[in-house]
Amino acid sequence: MTAVGRRAALRWALASVAASAGCAPSRTAPIGAGGEGGERRTAPYVPFDVTWLIRPRQGRKYLGVSFGGASVTPGYLDLWSRKAGKAPNLLAQRFSWGEEFPADRVTAVWRQRILPYLAWEPRGRTLREIAAGVDDGHVRRTAEAVRDLNVPVALAFAPGMNERGLPWGPRAASAGEFVAAWRHLHDLFQDTGVSNVVWTWSPTVTARPAVPLEPYWPGDAYADWLGLTGRYGTDGPRTYDGLFGPVVKEARAFTRAPVLVAGTAAPAGGRKAAVVKDLTRAVTTRDDVVGFVWVDATDRTDWRIDSSTGALDAFRRGVADPRFGFDVRRP
Amino acid sequence: MTATDDRATTGRYDPESTLRLRVPAPRGPHLAPGYTFDEITRADWVLGRVPDRGWSAAPSPRRTLVSRALLACLLLAQAVLSLRLHNSAFEDEALYVYAGHAMIDHLFHGAPDYGGFDTYFSGSPALYPVLAAWVDSAAGLTGVRLMSLAFMLGATGLLYSLTRTLFNERAALLAAGIFAVTQSTLFLGNFATYDAMSLSLLALTAWLLVRNATGHWALPLAVAPVAALAVGVKYASALYLPTLALLLMLVAYRRLGTREAVRRGAVFTAGTVLLLGIALLSTDYLQAIQSTTTERAHGTTSVGLLVRDSVRWGGLLSLLACLGTVLYTRRPGLGEIPGHRPPPAPPRGWRIALGTVLTGTALLAPAYQIHLQTSISLHKHIGYGLLFAAPMAGVGLSRLMGAHLRFPQAVIAVGVLALTFGMSQSAQNYGVWPDTGRLIPELAKNVRPGQKWLGQPHEGPVYYLSDRGLTDYTLWTSIFYIDYAGRKGRHLSGPEGYRAAIQDGYFDGIVLDWSDQPGDIQTLIRQEMRSTGRYRLASALTYRTSVGSGHFEIWLRLPAAHTS
User: Fold this and answer.
1) Where is the GH26 domain (chain A) (predicted)?
2) Which residues on chain B are in Cβ contact (under 8 Å) with A29?
3) Mean pLDDT taken over chain A
4) For chain A, the helix, strand and coil percentages under 3-state DSSP, each to the nearest 5
5) Which CATH number covers residue A130?
6) B22 lies in a domain?
């Protein structure tokens, strides 16, 4: 081949490479031509599958902790893990109505192999207004944020709906309004394409006077966990059966959803170790209980696990069971 | 010619003559044929000597070679632009290929015919689907789509040859070029349905008829099977049979006169009708033909919207075809060789008839769909008519360019417009359905052999998952029809059927396509799943299409322990 011929061949080769590169689909190519169009995609292609988290396999249990709903630094969590002898795999935090979804906070929790649990408290809005769609924009934005984050989130909307003292309790809103608001919220999330939420229905077992819970149940398609909350007292029930048993029995009349003890603690005192021992034993031996969340806080009394050496030892022994604290990132 | 003379004729710089008002050269006595625009040139400019071969009116290997090389470039561009389109199997593609596998099992291996495909397909399930399934076994969906590309490239090639026979190479290349970049051609070239095969068979019929029009009168009878096959592959192709018969008669008339033209037209029509009649009597496709083609249910799409879509997708080519018809009617000559005596021009009436028949065919599909008020598949069907109008568009473009390629800028502008429309519209139409590329692996995790599923889309999942032995067509219920016999002595259909089946937890899983405008049945199914609590949303896969966004939902039946 002559020099001119070689040059021509080289030119054609370069041109064909350039043409192929030009025809190769790029991200900004139109949808239908191998690209995604000009608009940037934020939603995940494949959502995180949370169905296995609802009933963890092989009887594994959640070891959850809540620091009174406040967010904590990883260092503080490590400190607690060292005290408890095991790292938690669920962290309950508070999420206020109207607040932007705390994506960074949730991501930070998830990175530590901990399932984020958010108690979504509708302060500043009545349940009737939420059901009527007054804050649909906020709900949709939150749903999009949850979807785009693509990490599993346990969401407890209006926890303690049977507590008279709360702004969304029986004194302020009826059971029908609670169910309507819950379903409206849930449906908006589904319409937005959110499937990475574990919906947690969270009544307080110690609410007085007790109200019938069945009218508050939004339906099996709407709620995944019975997230029962209730703290032991210095007197009264000292066992799981005593404190949670009546409500679980009542709930079993209308649902078979698994139970998560979504917030419990025992006050400092002589019977704390026995309470902790019974709680961890009950959680590990019952198939329909998926775990518990310890409220490690101090307010009127010291609820923390290390309020006494005996209590701490009991806690450490209880959660040492290998079923506690599994890796929430792997089924 | 000496050097001095040469300078004098080509014009030496002379400030006086340069600034002088230019006067057009006086018109010569012989105006070149096909020469529609007055030329303004410098007074002192003369045409250089032209090599003889460039002016030869006789067929020459060089001309054939150049034309075919250009055609090859056009076909390459068409192939690249078609292959650029990218999406998962559309529901029709998946259904036809799957149906083909079922038909092969039925026809060749004695399996029961459970699909009932012949009752609702818009083409014979024993022709294209079987061929597609056969290719699918060897090369997958990509292979079937490549077969469509081959059909469409064949159609463009035949269009070139047909136009060359009717007019000349230049018109043929321009016709092939404008047809090759329309959205319907690019779309069908990567789309595994009947359309590409049927369209190429129509092109083949037209080509055979035009080539053999002046041969023996019985020759069109030999072409009738091809036309009948085109109709068998897709019933709606029958709409173009009159065009084919008229084209044959027109071409025959020009050489042989009225009697011979009518004779050939009658022979072709009789042969085709006879074959189709035999096919109709020996099969039970009549019901399908009525429901999908002749008595198709009327839609609710507005006329304005249909007209707008028709203009967007076929307007440019149709406009060029109209232009071609008008210009061809005004002046028959297409040659531009000075001194060449062209053969006698066809009469004006013939030219009008040819232009009207070919251009008018482009209006058939839009007119029929406007009559039905449905926009379903209009973007594909419009391509059939454009195939016939393309030769006239080629003439129009050729005239727009003028003799000696004098005004290429007009054709370049039209070409760029056509290319832009074709590329953007084909990509948009190819991105209308959501990509199931992420849905199928998610479903594969959940679908187990023998499980009963409900859903839309289900054709894609059935096609992809049956390949892995996870499911088959009989295990899926669509959102369009249900016959639920789960309750004693009662067959429930429609909304009641879906409601009862969901209440009873009949389905192991349900797939929904949830977009901004979900259908009534989808809304009912979802509402029922929520209120009964028998199912839980397991996965929502968001997607974006070229016209909007939405998400697929996979709902799974809750384990018994979870239900109340």
Assistant:
1) 41-328
2) 427
3) 91
4) 35, 15, 45
5) 3.20.20.80
6) no
Nearest-Cα distance to chain A for B47, in Å, is 32
Mean pLDDT along residues A198-212: 93
Say if CB B431 and CB B545 are below 8 A apart.
yes
* Per-residue model confidence (pLDDT) at position B241: 96
Q: B179: exposed, middle or buried (C-beta count within 10 Å: 0-12, 13-18, 19+)?
A: buried
Phi, psi of B485 (to 5 degrees): -115, 25
Q: Which residues of B touch A51 (CB under 8 A)?
A: 536, 538, 556
| Cβ burial B192-205 (10 Å sphere, 16+ → b, else e) | bbbbbbbbbbbbbb
Q: Do A49 and B539 touch (CB under 8 A)?
A: yes
| pLDDT score for A170 | 93
The DSSP call for residue B292 is I
Separation in Å, CA of A312 to nearest CA in chain B: 35
Cβ distance A51 to B538 less than 8 Å, yes or no, reads yes
- Interface check B254 vs A, CB under 8 A: no
Contact A47 B541 (CB under 8 A): yes
> By CA distance, what is A24's nearest residue in B?
B84
B564 vs A: CB within 8 A: yes
Nearest to B522 by CA among B474, B435, B456: B456
What is the per-residue pLDDT for B9? 47
The answer to whether B541 contacts A224, with C-beta atoms less than 8 Å apart, is no
Predicted confidence band of residue A303 (pLDDT cuts 50, 70, 90): very high
Nearest to B563 among A33, A45, A220 (CB): A220
Query: What is the structure's pLDDT at B560?
Result: 59
Residue B457: CATH number of its domain:
3.40.190
Q: What is the pLDDT of residue A236?
A: 86
Predicted TM-score of the model (pTM): 0.86
Min distance B178 CA to chain A CA atoms (Å): 20
* B69 CB within 8 Å of a chain A CB: no
What's the number of domains chain A is made of?
2
Which A residues, 50 through 69, put their C-beta within 8 Å of a C-beta on chain B? 51, 55
pLDDT band at A279 (very low <50, low <70, confident <90, very high): very high
CB contacts, 8 Å: B556 with chain A: 51
Q: Is B540 on the interface with A (CB under 8 A)?
A: yes
- H-helix segments, B218-302: 219-233, 241-256, 258-282, 286-289
Please tell me which residue of chain B has the smallest CA distance to A23: B84
pLDDT at B3: 43
pLDDT in tens, B262-277: 999 999 999 999 999 9
Q: Give the domain extent around B372.
A: 88-430
Nearest C-alpha neighbor of B246 from the set B353, B324, B318, B168: B353
Who among B540, B546, B550 is closest to A195 (CB)?
B540
CB pairs under 8 A between A and B: 111
- Domain-located, residue B42: no
Q: Does A150 touch chain B (CB under 8 A)?
A: no
Same domain flag for A27 and A104: no
**Residues A41-52 pLDDT 10s:** 888 889 999 999
Q: What is the mean pLDDT of residues A258-267?
A: 95
Nearest C-alpha neighbor of B459 from the set B93, B86, B132: B93
Q: What angle do CA B220, B223, B227 make, to 5 degrees?
A: 125
The arithmetic mean of pLDDT across residues A268-297, rounded, is: 94
Preceding omega of B457 cis (within 30 degrees of 0): yes
Q: Which residues of chain B have pLDDT under 70?
A: 1-41, 49-57, 114-115, 334-340, 560-564
pLDDT in tens, A99-108: 999 999 999 9
Q: What's the number of CA atoms in the CB half-sphere (13 Å) around residue B69?
A: 6
Q: What is the pLDDT of residue A259?
A: 96
Quote the pLDDT of residue B28. Answer: 57
Residues A121 and A18 reside in one and the same domain: no
Residues B310 and B452 in one domain: no
